Amino acid sequence: MMSNSEIEARKTVLQIKDLRKSFGDNHVLNGFNMELYQGENLVIMGKSGSGKSVMIKCLVGLLEADSGTIRVMDKDITKLDQSAMDILRADIGFLFQGSALYDSMTVRENLEFPLRRHSKKFGDEMNTEQMVHEALENVGLLNAIDLMPSELSGGMKRRIALARTLILRPKIILYDEPTSGLDPITAKEIILLMQEIQNKYNTSSLIITHDVDCARAISDRMILLIDGVDYAVGTFDQLASDNDPKIKAFFKH
Amino acid sequence: MSGLNEIKSRLTNFFIETGEIAYFTKRFFTEMFRRPFEMKEFFRQCYQMGNRSLLLVGITGFIIGLVLTLQTRPTLMEFGAESWMPSMVGISIVREVGPIITALVCAGRIGSSIGAELGSMRVTEQIDAMEVSGTNPFKYLVVTRVLAVTLMLPLLVLFGDAIALFGSYLVENIKGDVSFMLYFNKVFDALEFGDIIPATIKSFFFGLAIGIVGCFKGFNCKKGTEGVGKAANTAVVLTSLLLFIIDFIAVFVTDIFYDL
Predict the structure, then answer these.
(1) pLDDT per position as a tens digit, A19-32
(2) A55 to chain B, minimum CA–CA distance in Å?
(3) SS3 of A209, please?
(4) What transmembrane ranges does the database entry give (chain B) (predicted)?
């Protein structure tokens, strides 16, 4: 694990400033700020309904923020047109909470789908078959290549979804509750897999979770999202030993 | 007062939804002409919607042809006009019964399946996953499906008409000893382009309505699995209602052209 100063000396790959988002009278994000550095695992923790998923969806353009700036690899995504955003998306992987595999396609087709969209990124070097095999080998599920998503267990679905995320060789991976709904053993396997991937490809990871064990295992740094703002920032140990009752509530089990 | 408020709220929701469907339709026509064209998915949808509806449309058409002839025959016989049967059945099937029955059957089969499929994709975040991977889900899912059903429905109507006429011929052959050649000669003698062309044009609009409403309900599905069921159900109900409205307008417009 890296120290705070080591991390902050690195290049910023993702920056959010004063992000605000409301749904009617429900103010979900009230000026959220964060920075993600190259090669870092940043965990964002918050209670259910605290706006974690809203924040991550604003980050990839699935939701439009009311105000604030979001810079991904020096590009302000709030000012990008659709085609520029689509190109940028090849560098941002997103692992959905429910895996979100296309259930009318086989595992192979699920992995080929994003590749076809972004063939320009790889140019003449692209070998679809080889890339699909490599991505599935990374998650240890090459034997599931011709199965349908309905034939997979929850843990397998999560791994395949991770393989689909990895296939575009993203520079940043966003994980939305990567261990939710999984048993503790499978959750641990997913965490190990995330660490392996981070070491192998030197990706920067933003992990949204309310699972303290997951945060402890994987985080270089953590942000606590409370009342729509970045309430506290620090390493797991720093935050776990904090005396603020709002922060303590996260670590008390 | 609460009754009035209820009516006001329902009317407001009705106008909001009408506006949203109009915007969705406008977006469909805009996106349809933009690259990239999802040809593979379009042909897959044509196969799913066209080929896989053949049996249902065929059986329905056959029964409609049989029933229409069996029900009409005694009345025509009373007036000694049973020789008019092929022309009468032919015109009613081609002009009205064939298109509307086929469209209603397809609203049930295709409209509900589009609503449920897209609704389920929406609540399981598959549509979001598609967008995040750099694919325009509207183009990939909506444009391909609406185009496929719009193009397949007139073909299904023609197929349904043919089977219905064959069903009618069987009754005539069994009950009245009418030959195949005689029956169909009489049918085609009675039919004009003025019967076939308006029916085909309105079938395109029926297909468009089935596709747009099914996709709209599925694409904007909310509230988890309950929402998926609701999307499929309301897609069928709203489409069926729209089909009759389109049919009325089509008949009205055709009538104006006949008068000219």
Answers:
(1) 999 998 889 999 99
(2) 14
(3) strand
(4) 54-72, 84-107, 146-171, 196-219, 231-258
